[in-house]
Write a structure and sequence with these properties.
The complex is a heterodimer of chains A (285) and B (192).
Chain A lengths: L1 H11 L13 E3 L22 E12 L13 E10 L4 E8 L4 E11 L2 E3 L6 E11 L16 E12 L4 E12 L10 E12 L4 E9 L12 E10 L2 E8 L6 H6 L11 E11 L6
Antiparallel strand pairs in A: 1-6, 2-3, 2-14, 3-4, 4-5, 5-7, 7-8, 8-9, 9-10, 10-11, 11-12, 12-13, 13-14
Chain B lengths: L1 H25 L4 E14 L4 E14 L4 E7 L4 E2 L2 H11 L7 E8 L11 E13 L2 E5 L2 E7 L2 E11 L18 E12 L2
Antiparallel strand pairs in B: 1-2, 1-10, 2-3, 2-4, 3-5, 5-6, 6-7, 6-8, 8-9, 9-10
Classes of the chains: A mainly beta (285), B alpha+beta (192).
Amino acid sequence: MAAVCGALRAQQEQDLLSLLGREETTEYAAASFKTNRVINLHSLESTAHGVLDVKISHRFGFISGGAYELWGLDQSMIRIGADYGITDLLTIGLGRSSFQKTYDGFIKYKLLRQSTGLKKMPITVAALFTTACQTEHWKDTSRENFFSSRLYYTYQLILGRKFSNALSFEVAPTLVHRNLVETTAEENDVFAIGFAGRIKLNKRFALNGEWIYVPPGQLDPKYHNSLSIGVDIETGGHVFQLHFTNSTSMIEKGFICETEGKWSDADVHFGFNISRVFTVVKPKE
Amino acid sequence: MAIQTIEARMKRLSGIVFLFFALTTWCPGQQYYSKTGKVTFISDAPLEKIEAHNNSGYVVFDSGTGKIEWSVLIKGFQFVKALMQDHFNENYMESQKFPKGIFKGFVQNIKDINLQKDGDYTVNVKGELTLHGVTKPFSPVGHISIKGGVITATSNFDIVVEDYDIEVPKVVRDNIAKTVKVMVVADLQKLN
């Protein structure tokens, strides 16, 4: 008798929720990086739908300038930009860099999203197309100059994965096309591959690193591979990114193809990106 | 000998009768459910008012025992600001580690409720709430109303953020309330 009662009681104490079956949802990996840039490179993240992300980025002069240049603080390059999320998958952005007086724009679309649950996807893949227009006075006015010579295009695939809450990694095969190059020794189409990762130290600090490898023979030997390391500090609506990088430019064509600094010579910039987000369009309930 | 047999039979019969009785009283009653339970919370702090909605809570209610269970996916909460939603999941609720909020409890005064006809009842629910990996006894006051065969279960209660080991850093102390108001509502339908 007691056994029967016990069995019934067990049945009664069974998990009622299990009667409904498992929740059938797809969980997308979120916040693989704190913002849509690692340091210079684009990260796996997009700007959310209806969100305007205003970015102010600075690079000071080379640390190798020493005390006389206050370790580079006497000089500064700035990029002012804004990114906007048209949908959760599609982001556009505009910017203006003081370095080479360059305007830039980009379109970024997430092709695949890392997810678990109903839909399973091991990686995130995003496609990035950027264009840049350099507006400095022509260096050589004696020859015929074309507007098209000012333009640069970058095509990039960003493949990556959030391996755990703490660790994210991405690889970014890239093609930069330059309509005009300085010397015939340089290629108009430069192939490069970027690697970037982040380690989250705690809820508000993350360590970032990125390295862009340009196979030799495409650029003038005075240019080096871009290497940057930094931290992300998050406070409410802001993300502060502080870093050291040997790249002066903050846009693809520049930091991939025109990085003059050499880490071994301390030709490294201290710099920061500040990101502030504004919700422009509120999501429907 | 014959008398003994009858006695034995009587014993067996009473056993069966008792078993039957036990079965009918122990057997769970009709179960009701919803997969669209709404959970809303409001954090009203001096500097900021934060509100989030989740419209896909799972609820099961057993009218026989009064047992009621809620399960809500933390990632399903929708905020007005995308960044807040990120922070909520990443920094506060750690939804990767603790994906669900779960309440399991019993309606104490289930005997007083007649689900067969229209009516309103205030119910005392006693159970346990699991949030952010912390399980605590939890006894909210709820409301069950029956109208035209539709059973609606609602409850409003407060949750003390600290009770569930949810860390709020000093910098945002004035942005996030210490006590969060929660409203739940579900229209229940018969299971099976």
